[in-house]
Amino acid sequence: GLVHESRPDVRHVAGALRADAVEERRAIRGARRYDARADQASAEAAYRTALQLDPLDPDNYGSLASFLVKQKRYKEALVVVDQTRGRGTSKEEKFADLFLTILLEDGDLELADGLAAESPVRVFNSFRANVSLATIRMNHDHAREALPLLKRASELDPKNVTPHTMSAEAYLKLRNWAL
């Protein structure tokens, strides 16, 4: 009866969903290739296509936002983060992830400081953003500038040992010039 008649429609919808998933993965791979070749316009178009194909995948928002941060388009990146919806990841996590995606990129300190300057309240309220920004600063021998971030991170999550350990490393770098 009715159930048997609807099966071709279900198969058609399932096939279309699989095709969209394949297209989304293809768009992300293309975006990364364009990005590697410094073809920013094509890379951005491909990231946006992936987002349109699956607007409920928070990774698509993160990929586009990360791309925009690397272009120093911080405000646009934050708009993309604010639009994040879908499964699992919160906007706050996507914001903090931006610092991780630029870690060890060329110019990561400049990018991280630019993002932090554009969104100081978000950094202030995010444990992960404080720790990630402190990590980037310490990687560039800016231990003194990392300490306030680590202090704030320990206030946000007093039981987490990471900011305490990193603070000890920072103080060691500041006081022991032989290192």
Written description of the protein model:
The protein is mainly α and 179 residues long. Helix content is 79%, strand content 0%. The protein has helices at residues 2-36, 40-53, 58-70, 74-83, 91-102, 108-118, 120-124, 127-139, 143-156, 162-175. The longest helix is centred in the first third of the chain and has 35 residues, at 2-36. The chain is elongated. The chain starts with a helix and ends with a helix. Residues 1-6 and 12-17 have low confidence and may be disordered.
In short:
The protein is mainly alpha-helical. It is built from 10 helices and no strands.
Give the DSSP E fraction (strand runs of 2 or more residues): under 5%
Order of helices and strands: HHHHHHHHHH
Shape category? elongated
Distance between the termini: 79 Å
The helix tally amounts to 10
Main sheet summary = none
Keywords:
single chain; 179 residues; disordered N terminus
List the helices and strands and how they pair.
Elements (H helix, E strand, L loop, with lengths): L1 H35 L3 H14 L4 H13 L3 H10 L7 H12 L5 H11 L1 H5 L2 H13 L3 H14 L5 H14 L4
Helix pairs in contact: 1-2, 2-3, 3-4, 3-5, 4-5, 5-8, 8-9, 8-10, 9-10
